[in-house]
Amino acid sequence: MPLLINLRHLESCPVRLAGRVNVSELDIDPHDEVIRVSQPVEYELEVQSVDNGLLLQGHLHLTLDCQCVRCLKPFPYSLKLDHWACHLPLQGEDAVAVDNDCVDLTPFLREDILLAFPQHPLCNTECRGLPRTLMGNPKKASNADRVGKGLSAWAELNKLKL
Ligand SMILES: [Zn+2]
């Protein structure tokens, strides 16, 4: 089901809409190899009629399948538009299409969701990318060194006490 709003229902009071728009309806193309859309968009909106137009307010949520651009790991990216608002004119040059008293809101969701896509998806802001092969085994040596120093520090303390 595309996201339709019947203008007649808006005549007396605002209308609340909640549900999901499937991927096929949303018809979104990320134009990006590292982002895939496979899950529906969840929405919760309030639609009210304002001067010669519609005002949409609410939140949109979508989980994207992303691939980290640094380490190439796949990870889910939660895209949330919590205070989404959109004004749609019903008159004038930019007026939205009305079909049988209904307006399809799907294209406007699609547009703003695309704008909110991550530019360079990262599994973690601190991601350092692909692990490099360690040269030799410097970690073990430094640990042993630390233990050695630790022991001597205790020895020093003992000397002070005496
Ligand atoms: Zn990563």
What's the SSE blueprint?
Blueprint lengths: L3 E3 L8 E7 L1 H4 L8 E2 L4 E10 L2 E15 L6 E16 L12 E3 L1 H10 L22 H24 L1
Antiparallel strand pairs: 1-7, 2-4, 3-5, 4-5, 5-6
The structure holds zinc ion (ZN).
How would you sum up this structure in a few lines?
The protein is an alpha+beta fold and 162 residues long. The protein has three helices and seven strands. Strands 2, 3, 4, 5 and 6 form a five-stranded antiparallel beta sheet that branches. A two-stranded antiparallel sheet has the order 1-7.
Describe the structure.
The structure is a single chain. The chain has 162 residues and is of the alpha+beta class. It has one domain (1-162). 23% of the residues lie in helices and 35% in strands. The protein has helices spanning 23-26, 106-115, 138-161, and strands spanning 4-6, 15-21, 35-36, 41-50, 53-67, 74-89, 102-104. Strands 2, 3, 4, 5 and 6 form a five-stranded antiparallel sheet that branches. Strand 4 (41-50) and strand 5 form a beta hairpin. The longest helix is centred in the C-terminal third of the chain and has 24 residues, at 138-161. Zinc ion binds next to loops.
